[in-house]
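Troubleshooting log. The previous structure file for this entry was overwritten by mistake, so regenerating from the original sequence record. Sequence copied from the archived sheet and checked twice against the printout by T.R.
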Amino acid sequence: MKETVPNTSGGNISLKQELLRKSTHIGALVIPGGYYFLELEQVTAFSILSGIALFMLVIDVSRLRNWWFWRVLSGRVFSRMLRKHEQDGDLTGASYILLAAAASVAIFSKPVAIAAISFIIVGDAAAALIGRRFGRTKIGNKTLEGSLGCLAATFLVAFFTPGIPLQVALLGALVATVVEAWPMGVDDNVSVPLLSGLAMTMFIVLS
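Regenerated output below.
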C-alpha cells in the first residue's frame, strides 16, 4: 500500500512526494545564503527577489488558468507535489515564500531578514517531516512532535545566524515556531518570517 501522510495541510500527498516537496523547500536557503555570502545590498537583494517572485507568480497563474506554459513545462515536474488547497485554486508555497522573502528584505535589517527567512525554510521542513513521520499528539491540524522539530531546527538556525545577538535570534525562533503551529488563516510561509522578523526588530529597538 502506498504510504500517505496525514491530512494536516490541506490534502494527502505521499511521503515520497512530501520529501521531494521539502527538498525543494530547503533549496530556498539559497535566498538568505545568497543575501549574506554575496554581500548584496538591500536594494539589490529586493530587486532580485521581486523579479523571481514575479516569475513564480506567472507560473502559478499559468497553473491556475491551465495555460500551455504550465501544461508543457512546469506541470510535468511540479504537479505531483501540489497539495489539495493549491489544486483548488490557492497559490503555491513557493510563491508565498518568495513574496514573504522579498517583503522581509525590504522591511527588516539584513541580519533579521536572513534569520526570519531561514526560520520558515528550515522550521517548516522540520515540522512537516517530523510531524508526519512521528507525530502523535495533535495540536489543531499540526502535531506537538512536529512543532518540537520546528523549534529545534529554528534554534539551530538562531545559533548560526550572523550579525544578530543570540537572545534576539532565539526569540525569533520561538515566535516562528508558535506562528507555524498556530492556525491564523494566513499561509505560514508569509506569517512566520514576517511575524518573527517583527518580534526580533521590536526586541532590538526596545532593548
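The chain has a mean pLDDT of 85. Archived copy saved in two places this time.
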